[in-house]
Fold this sequence. Notes:
Low-confidence stretches: 1-5, 19-25, 360-377, 398-407, 446-455
Shape: elongated
Number of domains: 4
Radius of gyration: 41 Å
Number of helices: 5
Helix content: 10-25%
Distance between the termini: 102 Å
Strand content: 35-45%
Amino acid sequence: MSDLKEFEINGVVYTLKDEVARNAVGSPLTANSSADMEDTTKVYVYTGTTSGSLTNGHWYYYDGDSWEDGGVYNSQGIGNASINGSKLSLDIRSSLMQLASKVLQLAEKVAYIDANGQDYYDDLEDAKDALEAALYPPTNLVSISAVYTQSGTVYETDSLDDLKSDLVVTATYDDSSTETITTYTLSGTLTVGTSTITVTYGGKTTTFTVTVSAIPFDYGAITLSSVVDNQYIDDTGAVTSNNGSHYDTEYFSLTGSATDLIFKSTCNNFRISMYDASNNFIRQIHPSNVYIANVTKASNEKYFRIAWYGSSSSTFNIYNGTALDLVMEIGDIDSTTGEDKTETKRIRSADYIPASGTMDTLNCPFASAWSDWAASNCGFFFRCYDSSYNFVGSLLNGTSMFRGNAINKALPTNTAYVRIVMQKDTNAMSAGFSQDVVNAMTIYNANYTVVEATT
């Protein structure tokens, strides 16, 4: 053996001895104070009075920077051969693997000077692999969990993969370790309402729920491009001649899955005819003397056509939503205090209607039989309240409430709710007539969407 080779081997052996000395701490030493803990290669059990970061009865080891608390010394007996590699601390496992690597380095050098050196090296390499497998055994998946935080509107036509941006899936293993995973799969069906979606990963499943919205209509104004004058569509779906009537020959598609619709027109005598996917007539909505019609679309209704009596330049719009149905009662609301008071020529809403900013278009669809009401001055007022239902002021419209009126007026500052008062300046309402008005009252909010009134 050359002097150089012997020198290199001796150096490796010296290094290994040093590593063994640093890791073989032996029996722990005792320390009554931090000053007694001088040897950073040893473990100390603190026997002094608990003070500062040191606790009586705990053992301490030096991690290279400071003394770390290892917990209560001998707090629980450990049986022979009862600890596997995965129970050792990461520091100990790392040190053992470093030691094995240095032994393997030594065997590699021996292989240069000994005929059997390669065999030694191969055996030691196998031993190192076995040690690594013992110290870092494979983990088994125990369960998965999912946390879904919905950040936007989800429609029934959206892809399940679109949900992943708001979803965090965590895998838990039998060694209590966890990790966030992204290679999971999602299954289930998005339907309007609350849908339950299943997450699958590694043979494990969990579920989460998502709120799914109906696909909205995106009409706004309806473009009438094929109008036929002096004809209309009757309630059987047949086209019939009638002077002053009009209809559009086009079948407008009812896109989206929303079922609650509002049709609004500039004329008060119109008809909405509904058709199936093959343009077969189903039914007709023919509201009386109103500018707005609330329609609940059936699942087989795929198209509609429009007919009306009046100006050929009448316009139509379609919106999502339903009418706001108010409970109306005989009486007034004081314009300075916001309190209820007796009045036989007025009716008031018992409900507080969420509102802010500008009240735009309202509508009260009275039946034509109520001609005495329609002919009278039936202006309406808003009594306005803040979020705590404190009165903040009144807003007067002063125009007829019969049919629809675009008032477009700003509400008082801090308005969160309104109540509506309607006046009839002729004779007081009879009990029967008043009850009819109460039952038929329907007022639409500015955006033609559902508004929940608060009593």
